């Protein structure tokens, strides 16, 4: 089955998936491995100190930021919030110079360690194989890794990159997931690096874009975790939602690329509250609540293994675009009012 996905930044990208889709599964109980992305493409957001306090007051113990914003890093001191720190795509080329990578690590990590709890460095976000910046991703990762090791932080902070599902050439069935010829030359050496260093692959997973890209074949309940019963069987594995299918397709692709020991961290996932027909408060609320309740279950390929997952995003961002939905992925309005009721992050 072929299915379409829309890349969040470009709004159009191709997902391959054939068929019908999957059901709802919710749980309660243990602490959930949930973080929230702190996007800042807006002119009306609270101060970084207020944002950090807001994370803490809402029981959110994990944050992703997209650049080494000094005000954010200062605000995080002493909070113990686990951090994914991003390297902007525009900085990748400069970090292929070892001395520049060393300076970057000294200025943005060593200067704040150990009072900031760095967990991962995301070297680039959704860099496509066709992007000229793709040639710089792995060298930048290697140089940052070496700089961290020189600073005696190599064992504590993992170096990775964040990718979109458009890298998958085949996604159905999930057991046949693969990167394909076009993506393999780019991602396979990165997978080898991750396998060697014990770092996870960071993956942005958006059932919303898959659904709006092919609503005739992808059922809304499959994307929202609300379908009843198993939608398709992949050998011995029963699939019940699109989120799990995407993640497991990546696990299969990693195995095929020599990364059977590489774990996945979902570095972004979300659902907009307005901007097009499927983007409603009800749908977004359903997605977030069911996802948060689901992540401790693992996936059919990794049952019982809690999935570290970062929701996108903390606040609506009024300077994003061009699509209207891009401005409405926030869990909260910029005045810190919740958009959805009864969502618990812990």
TrEMBL record:
Pfam families per the UniProt record, alphabetical: Glyco_hydro_17 (PF00332)
Reactions mediated catalytically: Hydrolysis of (1->3)-beta-D-glucosidic linkages in (1->3)-beta-D-glucans
GO biological process terms on file: carbohydrate metabolic process
Segments forming a coiled coil: none
Entry EC number(s): 3.2.1.39
Keyword terms, alphabetized: Glycosidase, Hydrolase
GO MF: glucan endo-1,3-beta-D-glucosidase activity
Family: Belongs to the glycosyl hydrolase 17 family.
PANTHER family (UniProt xref): GLUCAN ENDO-1,3-BETA-GLUCOSIDASE BG1-RELATED-RELATED (PTHR32227)
Protein name (Swiss-Prot/TrEMBL): glucan endo-1,3-beta-D-glucosidase
Annotated source species: Gossypium tomentosum
Highest classification ranks of the organism: Eukaryota, Viridiplantae, Streptophyta, Embryophyta, Tracheophyta
């Amino acid at each position: 089955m072929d299915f379409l996905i829309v890349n969040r930044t470009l709004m159009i990208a191709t997902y391959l998936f054939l068929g019908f889709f999957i059901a709802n599964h919710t749980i309660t109980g243990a602490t959930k491995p949930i973080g929230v992305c702190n996007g800042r493409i807006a002119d009306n957001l609270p101060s970084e100190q207020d944002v950090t306090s807001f994370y803490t007051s809402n029981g959110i113990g994990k944050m992703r930021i997209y650049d080494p914003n000094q005000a954010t890093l200062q605000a995080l001191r002493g909070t113990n919030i686990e951090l994914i720190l991003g390297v902007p795509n525009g900085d990748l080329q400069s970090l292929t110079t070892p001395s520049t990578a060393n300076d970057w690590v000294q200025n943005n990590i060593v200067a704040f360690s150990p009072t900031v709890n760095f967990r991962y460095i995301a070297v680039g976000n959704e860099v496509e194989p066709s992007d000229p910046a793709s040639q710089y991703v792995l060298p930048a990762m290697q140089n940052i890794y070496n700089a961290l090791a020189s600073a005696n932080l190599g064992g504590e902070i993992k170096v990775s990159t964040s990718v979109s599902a458009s890298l998958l050439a085949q996604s159905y069935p999930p057991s046949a997931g693969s990167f394909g010829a076009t993506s393999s030359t780019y991602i396979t050496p990165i997978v080898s690096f991750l396998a060697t260093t014990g770092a996870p692959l960071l993956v942005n997973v958006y059932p919303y874009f898959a659904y709006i890209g092919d609503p005739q074949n992808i059922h809304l309940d499959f994307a929202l975790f609300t379908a009843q019963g198993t939608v398709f069987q992949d050998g011995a594995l029963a699939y019940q939602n699109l989120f799990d299918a995407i993640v497991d397709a990546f696990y299969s692709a990693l195995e095929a690329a020599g990364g059977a020991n590489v774990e996945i961290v979902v570095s972004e996932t979300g659902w907009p509250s307005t901007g097009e027909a499927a983007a409603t408060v009800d749908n977004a609320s359903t997605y977030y609540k069911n996802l948060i309740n689901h992540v401790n279950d693992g996936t059919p390929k990794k049952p019982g293994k809690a999935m570290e997952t970062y929701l996108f995003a903390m606040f609506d961002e009024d300077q994003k675009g061009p699509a209207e939905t891009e401005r409405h992925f926030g869990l909260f309005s910029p005045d810190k009012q919740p958009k959805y009721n009864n969502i618990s992050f812990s």
